[in-house]
Amino acid sequence: MPTLCEEIVEEVHKRSASLEDLPGIRMVAISLGYTFVELNNGTMGVCFTPRSDSESCAHNPRAGTLAKKHILGLTELMLSANPLEKSVGIAAVNALSQIIMDHEPENYRFSDKDFLNLLPFGGQRLKIGMVGNIGPFVPFLLKHASCLTIVDDNPSFFPGFQESGYTISRNIEDIADVDVLIITGSSAAVGDFDQAIASAKSARFIGVVGPSAGWLPDPAFRRGVHAVAATKIIDISGARRAILEGGGTPHFIACGRKYTLTNQGRS
After folding, report:
1. What single-letter DSSP state applies at residue 65?
2. What is the reported pLDDT for 92?
């Protein structure tokens, strides 16, 4: 079975064929917190920048060549084994996906609810798993969860029960019995999305959220995902400045418009 990344790239290539013209690439940047691909038509796609394990000052062997590629060629880097190249590919996919979704708005159901309000609590306290730590979500989730498990390999997070009431784990199998699974869009950048879906055998709601999740949602929906929440960058110059200065989501989120797409085949 193809991976989610393989299906997303295939979907973007297939659907872009209906566009009259594909814009060129204005800039590619791999910054400390986020990577972006900016197109000549004023569209920007972003992706979390994975930690680099380079032992020298050079982190990307293709530096200086990426912006010279065709946008479809750049999207294929989403399949690269190099984490930094992969983040560039995802950013390119996200930029092109925004153009496709703007061209085909009738094919998508935009929710009028915030992502967190879509979670199926119904007065119950549920087991919640989160792949990747979304700090601002934690207080809300703790109010509704019987337990919260966060799977994250960030070395600054120490495994085990935290005083604030949730558990940090390195083992993806620890989400096997959760009722609700939330996956960060950056999980696509580090390559554990498919494993997360496969591990959450009991989940009755699966959501993907974050600026990195701006890709066409159809392949994720076919895997049983209920909702995908992302951000469309509106203020290109503001986002560019914040990212190039080493900023992360808190610094550029005001430069975008959040949206949530729901799976029309799932309730």
Report:
1. T
2. 98
Last residue of a domain, one of 107, 124, 152: 107
Q: Report the DSSP pairing between strands 205-209 and 227-233.
A: parallel
Q: Is the dihedral of CA 168, 171, 176, 182 positive or negative?
A: positive
241 part of a folded domain? no
Identify which of 32, 169, 39, 28 has the alpha carbon closest to the alpha carbon of residue 89: 28
- Helices of type H across the chain: 4-16, 71-75, 83-103, 138-144, 187-190, 193-199, 218-222, 236-244, 249-252
Secondary element (H or E) of residue 37: strand 34-39
Cβ neighbors of 86 (< 8 A, separation 6 or more) are: 5, 50, 77, 78, 79, 80, 189, 191
| Residues 93, 76: Cα–Cα separation, whole Å | 8
Q: Which residues constitute the domain of residue 29?
A: 4-107
Same domain? For 252 and 132 the reply is yes
Q: What is the mean pLDDT of each run of 10 residues along the chain (267 residues)?
A: 92 93 95 96 95 71 84 96 93 97 92 93 92 92 94 85 88 95 84 86 95 95 95 97 95 96 79
